[in-house]
Amino acid sequence: MRSAKDFFTPLAVGAPPPITEVPARPSRMIHFFDPSNEKMAAKVPDLVGTVDVLLGNLEDAVKADRKEAARLGLVAIAKATDFGEHTQLWTRVNSLDSPWVLDDLTTLVSEIGDRLDVIMVPKVQGAEDIHYVDRLLAQLEARAGLTRPILVHAILETARGMASVEEIAGASPRMQGISLGPADLAADRRMKTTRVGGGHPGYLVRQDPIGGDIHGERTTYQQDLWHYTIARMVDACAMHGIFPYYGPFGDIKDVVACEDQFRNAFLLGCVGAWSLHPVQIDIAKRVFSPSAEDVAHARRVKEAMGDGTGAVMLDGKMEDDASLKQCLVILELADRLAATDPELAELYGTTPETH
Ligand SMILES: CC(C)(COP(=O)(O)OP(=O)(O)OC[C@H]1O[C@@H](n2cnc3c(N)ncnc32)[C@H](O)[C@@H]1OP(=O)(O)O)[C@@H](O)C(=O)NCCC(=O)NCCSC(=O)C[C@H](O)C(=O)O
Ligand SMILES: [Mg+2]
């Protein structure tokens, strides 16, 4: 671990200075596309402005014999596309033990480093993986003459990564956030599921027997397989001032359960999720933007709390310093989203004086 006084020193001569605060740009949906898939790649220009993040995926879901095509496809797309002010360009490179990652990093930083906002690193095991990427990126940025650092996002998809999540979150000033990778994590943990995210009907609690009759009718309640993992990831991210995300929901057709999974993550503190298919974009936008009712309520609490101390009654409920702080989280998010999304600004009735 670097000493605190060295933490914000560039890791290579000529590399851009590290940032001291991660920019809180909207990233409600990280939309995955395969740059080697011509049909998907052709849709990128139309997606600009409709998604917060476009991510050119080079790792899993790209066939081994298409890895190079995906890398070069992403370079071509990044050079040819104007991403505007409100859509970020991210990539997910191959895992650090793969034969492709070195070429992924060297090619992307050299060719399109000035356009890439964030590099997602899969299967991160511990802080040492982030330290490796951190130094390599600094060297490549210096060589490419980049003036701003590319940020790093880790995917939590191994048991060891999970056990080290706090160290990973604080491993570098480049750390932008962490996503849950439920499919790889389930496999690594030897969970007995076969899905990409979401729940499982077998993971449940059952009502106690009524009148001692264990064979009688008893209600069951499906439980959230990911509660512990997401909650711990959220704590690690909050502790280090970076952003937590739910990852993929593989049942593309089940838009209802997708929305539930995304909302659970939103309520627990996540700022976004991955969209794997166009149908998931609006779900993420809806879920990860606070509702007009929540914003209106938060404003009322703020108003009622005056200088922010003490306790008041509002609609029969006690509000105090701590409930106000929660309301301020909602208002800050609403302000940030309204600043880039005129529809939300109208929905929230946002004006410069509103907050
Ligand atoms: C899931 C898919 C394979 C489905 O593709 P497809 O069968 O083509 O779906 P549709 O016929 O419904 O598609 C309709 C049109 O939309 C286009 N399309 C589909 N997906 C995308 C997209 N992501 N971006 C842009 N456009 C898209 C299709 O081309 C169709 O176009 P047209 O014919 O002109 O109408 C596919 O959606 C897909 O491959 N999605 C991405 C999958 C992915 O990235 N997976 C990796 C992330 S999840 C993961 O890695 C697990 C994680 O790491 C963990 O461990 O948990
Ligand atoms: Mg994975």
TrEMBL record:
Q: Which GO terms describe its biological process?
A: oxaloacetate metabolic process
Q: Which residues form the HpcH/HpaI aldolase/citrate lyase domain?
A: 30-195
Keyword annotations from UniProtKB, A to Z: Magnesium, Metal-binding
Q: Which domain of life is it from?
A: Bacteria
Q: Which cofactor does it need?
A: Mg(2+)
Q: Name one Pfam family in it.
A: HpcH_HpaI
What are this entry's molecular-function GO terms? Answer: catalytic activity; magnesium ion binding
- Where, in this chain's numbering, is Mg(2+) bound? 157, 184
Q: Which residues bind substrate?
A: 92, 157
Q: Which protein, by its recorded name, is this?
A: HpcH/HpaI aldolase
Q: Origin organism of this chain?
A: Intrasporangium calvum (strain ATCC 23552 / DSM 43043 / JCM 3097 / NBRC 12989 / NCIMB 10167 / NRRL B-3866 / 7 KIP)
Q: What is the lineage of its organism?
A: Bacteria, Bacillati, Actinomycetota, Actinomycetes, Micrococcales
